[in-house]
Amino acid sequence: MNRRAAKEVLSYVQSHGVKGLKGYIVNRVMTAGRPYELWFEDHKASESELQEQRRMKFAWEPKISIIVPVYQTPIEYLENMVESVLAQSYENWELCIADGSGGNQLIIDRMQQYCAGESRIKYRVLEDNEGISINTNKALELASGEYIGLLDHDDMLAPNALYEVVAQLQEKPWDVLYSDEDMVCDGKHCNPAFKPDFSIDLLRSHNYITHFFVVKKSIVDCVGGFNKSYDGSQDYDFVFRCIEKAESICHIPSILYHWRIHDQSVAGNPESKLYAYDAGKRAIEAHLERCGISAHVEMMSLWGMYHVVYETPGDPLVSIVIPNKDHIDDLKRCISSIVEKSAYTNYEIIIVENNSEEENTFRYYQELQEQYPVIKVVEWKKAFNYSAINNYGVSFTEGEYFLFLNNDTELISPGAIQEMLGHCMREEVGAVGAKLLYADDTVQHAGVVIGFGNYAGHVNSNIKKDECGYMNRAVINCDYSAVTAACMMTKRSLFEQVEGFDEQFVVACNDVDYCLKLRELNKLIVYNAFAEWYHYESKSRGYEDTKEKQERFRKEIEHFGVKWKKYLDHGDPFYNKNFSVLLEPFRLGS
Is residue 2 scored above 50 in pLDDT? Predict the structure, then answer.
């Protein structure tokens, strides 16, 4: 540690105590050199920026009704919440508060003081506390704006929150908008949630959208407000019903909402509201039923995280395509793991023999085909070309779904193929990737992000098998722009539509290129965290260990950069622009 860093650590401990040091170290890793609290101070809207925003006149200035159900809120927290709305740099808002505190005179008196000085605050004292959903609906009845924004009674908005929302509405009249957020503990900012653009699979895994959530009033009227049956996760249910009706969803990659941590909040004490997690499970189930999706939902040991298991009606044939050149020990392990462990049995295996030189290899091929009628060996006699070899292998398949598999993989979870197939059978899904582990049970693949090295890179890699990764995305299902074809499932129909793998990509880029071709068709690329395989690719082995290979790799990267320039220029929608592709994954830029 250099002198400057040591001085910074000492200063932080003096200010926050030794207990805060762990949080400092975690945040320091994520922010590539500084704790998040300092990063936040540098990136929040300055007073001069807020003044400029206050002078701004938009072409369209819709009213935003901020809805707050209040219940026995500590006065300090209540004041912080109200003051954060009063501080907004955008002025066309109203604050609609329904107070179910049972006639708490301290709250009533304070709110009446606010109302006397600000006509945009609408305050309603409820006769009875009927629970958070009914109370929120009572606040909704006060709303007259074109948009509804949700704010908890003990949380705060950034002063530029509404301005940033309305700025996005100048681009198009979005149906739904949501922002990044962080938490506040003892007045200090921590635990930022830098979210991806809309990801339905991430949302079905947990309510990553949460705050700041803004939706058209017409959609709220259509879905009917909040449902008391889901109290505890009423916002989760509400978000699902809104996005089901929405035709456009905008993610604002800025920290616009501050979620307060205290002993009775779910953020501060997850076990304080176990009923909320059951309500969350039921909210997902209701969403799937409304969408006509056959699946069941499992609660995970992580509070608020869920595993949606999709059915595989008809159990269609899966064609597994495995290129191979010698290395029969690897291939034996791969094949054995499938035939001995897989709970899904309707598959065929096409081994694409690629210029093997050892006699034992061909003897093993013969043994395989004699022992397993579902296995077929075909020969590729031309020079190595990963894309061409897989395209060739596909020509011998009969299944409607392809599972491309490296020969140095090994199935771990018996349900892996069925897990991947359940996702792949969904109409909106183009390809599905798996969780791949090195031999030491650290993560090799858990999704691919476009942009690293002017190409793409794995994220959440080199962490332990059960580590959550950023925003838990290593252990839950979610969407990415690409996955590795070391273990990737896709539909025959889509593979043919995009003309398979681009054979100009001989070694590198072919799988990412294939995924982006599917993204151009508006298809999702799903990372399935529950389909676990080993991938015995050496951590230390260099792919490009000769000048010839390095030159080929450089040319393929250049070709990728030309072909997918718009992705490289605009950034990966399933990442977050606050993370720098010049640093390690999930590291904040300067």
Answer: no
